[in-house]
Amino acid sequence: MRFLATGEEMQKIDQISIEQIGIPGLVLMERAALAVTEEIEKRFSRIKTGEHDTGRTAYTRILVVTERGNNGGDGLAVARMLAEKGYLVDVYCIGQVSRATESYKVQESILGQLGIKITEDFPNGAYDVIVDAIFGVGLKRDIEGIHKEVIDHINDMPAYVVAVDIPSGISATTGRVMNVAVKADLTVTMGLMKVGMTVYPGHGYCGEILVKDIGFPDKAVDMVMPEIFTYDEGDLNRLNKRRPDGNKGTFGKVAVIAGSQEISGAACLAASAAYRVGSGMVKVYTHKDNRVIVGGYLPEALMMTYQDEKTAVICAENACAWADVILIGPGIGTGKEAECMLKTVLENFKGTIVVDADGLNLLSAHKELLAAGEISRQTGNIALVITPHVKEMSRLTGKTVAELKEAPVRECRTFAEAETLVCVLKDARTCVSDGGVHTYMNTSGNDGMATAGSGDVLAGMIAGLSAGGISPTEAARLGVYIHGLAGDRAKKRYGKAAITAGSLIDEIGPIMSSYV
């Protein structure tokens, strides 16, 4: 598990490290500068290769652009270290002298002692590398005037751009572009990944991202306790191990209420995904017209079908009596049969319910359905997991898509807390919250996963993991993370444009094989 820090949280961690724990700020600054310098050295040698036919030695030219804050101080230290290693370095500073921080003044004095000049006129000429050390994580205002002009100029230059901590102009908290932002090829960020570098549009400005340990103590991080976290592959150890003495009932029974008269694929995908994450038994409840298709696609699945409202209710009642977990919604439509099944499940089932797709559309149209079973949820008798994408969330909450995208973590957590449920808010960066203090933000996956059926696969995975004994919240987090990993594997195998929901299912087994 890795924490993601907002701009405010990162500033507090820095402040505690310096003022309470006693690590000198200049020590942290030097370590940050060294981290950036080392990454530039890895990518650019001091003397250019392949240009010796001119008869002259060609050196790598680097421009360091700073403001007069602590991020600018990092930049000055980078300039010094690179110059000492023989690179041709120019330093350009924006901003008023009166606003210079003490750390910046120290670094400026050191450069003066070494004869490295700082210019206040943007240098002409070609550069191989530009180091962006203008603004850091504390930026809260839109960028205008000379700062905007300089950033526009940097973006127009053909040089390789390295951002110190965060590209200037990106909000470290929201990922918003503050009117203009540096488009970096590499971002070397210190201590913790920043939330604004994870979400869009900020992520798109960062290029390659490297997180460097510069010595922030764990105690400082623990004292701040960032609210947002993510998983890496080590967290797959959270998966339950298979029991050698287990049987198919041991590993959970999932009821998949999915598909309608004209839609069969959603049931196939969701049920298959539930099996692939380890479910012992999966039973599909679908329209009678889908029997042959579903049975041919997934012969392992049990099946029960309906053809009208009466038989639809019978199916839902059977699912409530049989299953450990019920997934309802993929492809069921929003007609009376689907409404009756959802109402029956929400009012009668004592277990985990995962509501996806058309199930969410029904909840939006019939808000009284969301109240069904609320008392049982509050007492812990049942758990409700919903998996809306932002448009579905907009219908559920009455908020615009723009409002949801502006603060996805807050909106996800607020709705989860208000309705006593687990909310999986799906977007380019999916969030998972059960209303508690900490919210999960997913960092696996890619845009190739924006394909029909991908959500059905995720819903089936969450249901299957929950049936295997993992808590609903953890099942949602792990489901989202593994779903993204499957997308990343499929991208390597087929390319993003060729990813299908079926290819995601094919990658689940190899991911889980070493952990269960």
UniProtKB/TrEMBL annotation:
Which residues participate in AMP binding?
426-430, 455
Residues annotated to bind K(+)? 71, 132, 168
The cofactor note from the UniProt entry for this protein is:
Binds 1 potassium ion per subunit.
Question: What is the superkingdom listed in this entry's lineage?
Answer: Bacteria
| Listed Pfam families | Carb_kinase (PF01256), YjeF_N (PF03853)
Q: Which reaction does it catalyse?
A: (6R)-NADHX = (6S)-NADHX; (6S)-NADHX + ADP = AMP + phosphate + NADH + H(+); (6R)-NADPHX = (6S)-NADPHX; (6S)-NADPHX + ADP = AMP + phosphate + NADPH + H(+)
| Residue stretches making up the YjeF C-terminal domain | 231-515
Q: One GO BP annotation here?
A: metabolite repair
Q: E.C. number, please? A: 4.2.1.136, 5.1.99.6
Alphabetized CDD domains for the sequence: YXKO-related
Residue limits of the YjeF N-terminal domain? 10-222
- Residues bound to (6S)-NADPHX are 70-74, 136-142, 165, 266, 331, 389, 456
Q: Which GO terms describe its molecular function?
A: ADP-dependent NAD(P)H-hydrate dehydratase activity; ATP binding; metal ion binding; NAD(P)HX epimerase activity
Which UniProt keyword terms apply here? ATP-binding, Isomerase, Lyase, Metal-binding, Multifunctional enzyme, NAD, NADP, Nucleotide-binding, Potassium
Cofactor(s) listed: K(+); Mg(2+)
Q: Which family does it belong to?
A: In the C-terminal section; belongs to the NnrD/CARKD family. In the N-terminal section; belongs to the NnrE/AIBP family.
HAMAP family under this entry?
NADHX_dehydratase (MF_01965), NADHX_epimerase (MF_01966)
| Function statement | Catalyzes the epimerization of the S- and R-forms of NAD(P)HX, a damaged form of NAD(P)H that is a result of enzymatic or heat-dependent hydration. This is a prerequisite for the S-specific NAD(P)H-hydrate dehydratase to allow the repair of both epimers of NAD(P)HX.
Q: Assembly and interactions?
A: Homotetramer.
Q: What is this protein called?
A: Bifunctional NAD(P)H-hydrate repair enzyme
Q: Which gene encodes it?
A: nnrD
